[in-house]
Design a protein that fits this description.
With about 425 residues, the chain is an alpha/beta fold. It folds into 2 domains: about 240 residues, Acetylglutamate kinase-like (Carbamate kinase); about 150 residues, 2-Layer Sandwich (VC0802-like), CATH 3.30.2130. Helix 1 crosses helix 3 and helix 5 packs parallel to helix 7. It is globular. The two termini are about 30 Å apart. Bound molecules: aspartic acid and magnesium ion (MG).
């Protein structure tokens, strides 16, 4: 008998029919002799619709506390309906809100981190033979305030809960068959990965692969929770996410991701003296702006140039911040560039295989494109390039690293991006 956490995303419970399908799936699993704890997201686009509704009421940013109060209702609808669906199949079930399930978070609205889980109540219900259904994405502070975990946060609820109750596995059900080498909508012969390491998955999740929430992967890694990503619409084997994963022979790159949410900012003719970079990046950090790739070019006549990337949404604010410290820092000019994309290759084997990055540069230049910026870590290489031919670049890299399969994958239905 195994204790299993099963998480179903918004599109998997998008309407009553789908909800019933999920109920069947859970009951099937329970009747195989397992104990199931289910985490669900809000149905379909509910969260987006609730956000739209709040915008119709408020002309300015709505109060964060009330926003959490509003958004957590989405998941509560799901748990109640799923519990009803499971009970109508003759299987005892009990639904719980995040706070009833003992999910405690820090006192931050909109993007709280889980601080503690007190699972006694749900464990008792499980041991009495119930399927337990917990609302994803929500928690409570020690003061009794309702919080949410950030968009896509139900994955984190599931993994954290799995860690807290020491589940044998946490299964993330979604509308794709697993983790692919790259987006199968872009590369028709993308391959489904039988397994992937936590570190690789974390890179891919952070680099724009939307299948799993990065914080959930972080949690899984820290608590060594075995994760499986699989389809809620079929019984195909999914992708196992774990500490170590076998590499197919001759393959070093596990996956390719891309992120269009990048802008480059260049500061030209900055006076070269100690502490200059610190001033710029401290000012940006104070404004809560995350900086990604930083490149400094050579020094000439006591002046240096450097560039860095920020997310597109932070670009204008970053420019304001830089202008604001102009007199303090001293530079000739600041400029920015959009229409860029960051393409990344990820693979745990890269660190011990020479020439992996070189091949990436070659593939991109063979397409006649120049590379604006590069960054590397032990298991990834990212290049910032013009975004106009992104799909071609991804396809060419996919082929060059031997990732193409001869099967065309069919991915139907709406993407479960949350
Ligand atoms: N319903 C929330 C969202 O749409 C949380 C989730 O789906 O994971 O972001
Ligand atoms: Mg999701």
């Amino acid at each position: 008998m195994s204790l299993i956490v099963m998480k179903f995303g918004g599109s998997s419970v998008g309407d009553a029919e789908r909800m019933k399908r999920v109920a069947n799936r859970v009951v099937e699993r329970q009747r195989e002799g397992n104990q199931c704890v289910v985490v669900v997201s809000a149905m379909g686009d509910t969260t987006d619709d609730l956000i739209d509704l709040s915008k119709q009421i408020c002309s300015v940013t709505p109060p964060a506390r009330e926003m959490d109060m509003l958004l957590t209702t989405g998941e509560q609808v799901s748990v109640a309906l799923l519990s009803m669906a499971i009970q109508s199949l003759g299987q005892p079930a009990l639904s719980f809100t995040g706070w009833q399930a003992g999910m405690y978070t820090e006192a931050v609205h909109g993007k709280a981190r889980i601080t503690d889980i007190q699972p006694e109540r749900i464990l008792k219900a499980v041991n009495q033979g119930n399927v337990v259904i917990v609302a994803g994405f929500q928690g409570m502070t020690t003061e009794g305030e309702i919080t949410t975990l950030g968009r896509g946060g139900s994955d984190t609820t599931a993994v954290a809960l799995a860690a807290a109750i020491q589940a044998d596995v946490c299964e993330i059900f979604t509308d794709v068959d697993g983790i692919y080498s790259t987006d199968p909508r872009v590369v028709k012969c993308a391959r489904k990965l039988p397994e992937i390491t936590y570190d690789e998955m974390l890179e891919l999740a952070n680099l724009g692969a939307a299948v799993l929430h990065p914080r959930a992967v972080e949690y899984a890694k820290n608590y060594n929770v075995p994760l499986v990503v699989r389809s809620s619409f079929n019984h195909n084997a999914g992708t196992n996410v774990k500490e170590e994963a076998a590499m197919e022979q001759g393959i070093v790159v596990r996956g390719i991701a891309s992120d269009k949410n990048v802008a480059r900012i260049s500061i030209l003719g900055i006076e070269e003296k100690p502490g200059q970079l610190a001033k710029v990046f401290t000012a940006l950090a104070k404004a809560q702006i995350d900086v990604d790739i930083i490149v400094q070019s050579g020094i000439m006549n006591g002046q240096a140039d450097f560039s860095f990337t920020v997310s597109l949404t932070d670009k204008d604010r970053a420019l304001e911040v830089i202008q604001g410290i102009r007199s303090e820092v001293g530079f000739r000019e600041v400029s920015s560039q959009e229409n860029l994309v960051k393409v990344s290759i990820v693979g745990a084997g890269m660190v011990s295989t020479p020439g992996v990055a070189a091949k990436m540069f070659e593939v991109i230049s063979d397409l006649g494109l120049s590379i604006n910026m590069v960054s590397t870590s032990e298991i990834k290489t990212s290049c910032v390039i013009d975004n106009s031919r992104l799909n071609e670049v991804i396809q060419a890299l996919h082929t060059a690293y031997g990732l193409d399969t001869d099967q065309t994958v069919y991915v139907g239905g709406p993407q479960d991006r949350r």
